[in-house]
Amino acid sequence: MKKILIVDDEQDIVESLKFVLEAADYICYCAYNGEDGLRLAKEIVPDLIILDVMMPKINGYKISRLLKYDNKYKNIPILMITARSQEGDKLIGEETGANEYITKPFDLDEVVEKVNEYLK
Amino acid sequence: MGKVLLISDRTEKIREYSNIFDKKPFEFTTADDEKTVFDIIEINPPDVIIFDNNRNNVKSLIKKLKSAADSTAFILLVKNGIVEQEISKYINAFITEDMSESLVSSIVNANIKTKSALEQLHETNKNLAESLYRLNVLYSTSSLFAGSLDKEKLVNYMIEGMDKSLSFDLTCTLAFCTEEQPVLILNSLYEISDELLSAIKLRTVLNYKSLFEDKKPPFEIDVNTLKVKKTIKYPGKKFTFTIFRYDNMFAPISLGDNFFGCIEIFKEAHFTSDDATYFQTIAQQVSLPLKSATLYQEIKETNDKLEKLERLKSEFISIVSHELRTPLTAIKNSLDILSSGKCGEVDDSGTKFLNMAQRNVQRLTEIINDLLDLSKIEAGKMDYHFAMINIHSVIEYVKTSLTVVAKDKGLNLISEETPNLPFVYADSQRLEQVLTNLVSNAIKFTPEGKTITIRSHIANASQITSNNCFAEDLSKLKGDYIVVCVEDQGIGIAEKDLHRAFDKFAQIENSLSRKAGGSGLGLPIAKQLLEAHNGTIWCESELNKGSRFYFAIPLSAISALKEPVGIK
Predict the structure, then answer these.
(1) ipTM strictly over 0.90?
(2) Residue B538 phi, psi dihedral angles, 5° rounding
């Protein structure tokens, strides 16, 4: 079974993502801050990461950049979640190597579909 | 009164002329030695010099004296009335030895009078030149005053203007208008010692207070903390306390109730009454621009404050909207999971309330999106992607996506398009947003069984008219436009409410519109989006019969299009 790491400081959102992804037969690992997210990513080397942008200390952009510049992890697809929708943010997201960009409030079914696309 | 100098070495001639001139109204001196002559000219210049032609070297003496005593009349005493050509050009008149006393006296008198008339003319000329110079300074100072709204500069212009025309030794300007605190501006020829400075400070403050007699002065000043700005022309030399014995003038700088400061100037030489007039004029003249500058500053400050508020408002909306999205996502996700049945079956009434919650989450999402759009547009941060687009595909897209919604409500959504309309330079996504909004509104406000029609046509500005409150907007249109119209058979808008249709949060109060929901921002957003296209939006409506919402996009050549608003 494929492993997915969900990193978001909003526990409720992590909870709902975990529910639908587990229902779709994925193993989910959760982190509620940037440090744990980065540590877990390196520890378990997931097949895909769902990453929130706005987090205290280490934000999603930073994590994405750190992973994408590391040969060991650069092939892990990253889905970025943000409450922002400015085009400028999208550009930064692309620069930092995120594969997808999802704006809140998102559709859970859509997220599952996107994940399926990357992991099939 | 005339001063006569006789240069002769002949005793009998000296005696003879003493008889004529050594009495009033003359002042008579004689000399022979060249050095004495020069001394006399230097100390007490004569009006007339009589040269005895009999004297040795009289020619060279005359030539030498001509440059030293430029304005003095030269008279040559000759024996027989013959004057050498060479010397005649240096002398004003000649007398002969055999002339009568009265004739000599009258010739000398005439020359004295001519000389004094010339002197007067010269003096008048000098005065005229000075007045002209002052007028010039006044003129250029006035121009400087008119050209500036910077109070510090205005005060400096005033001091410069006074320096040029009055050439003072020291000015003490107490200014209340250049900085937050009062400033004593000193412009001085020489350095000012600390003791003298404290005396000047004290004097200035006393002068200032004396302007208000018993009344309370508009500003409190503490001599000890008064800020001083010194400009010294020749720092090598120092002023002493004798400065207070110099001639001085003092004037307030004020206009009506506005008090800007006061100025005192010192000069070692005496000021004339002209100087006084001039001084007052400049001090008065600077007051008006200072007042304008004060008003300008006030307006600018208010403006800045408003701009800041406006920015804060936009930022606030943006932050709040973003912050709302996160909890909204959690609610939406939970509802979606519940209604998916993955947490167990939900019965019919449960489903009903789940749907209600989902519907309202959707509505809240739309409101937040609208708020964000509007704040982006107002902050000039909206992104536009202009390209040559086909209006037909915009209409087709909106029609396709909303047909189902219309059908669900039992409405007929149709389009009546003019075929082969030319392309327009526009952002298709934004136009879709506008049209979606107009059609959604029509769907919301039209009762079951009726029809909503989307029309398109091409029109010249002159053909686009409306006899209601949008006439003014429409009169600004120029050239050809593609006009899109959404017509419904809904509740309509009363004539008196039409002008508010595109105002923010101006959903027309009535029960049906309340029930229909919405953020009340759709139309104001549409209006702003169309303005970014150099287009316009307007509507016609009749209560209980229906509304027609129109928007127009210019067909003008791309080159003639202005840089679209809001592109960053």
Answers:
(1) no
(2) -155, 175
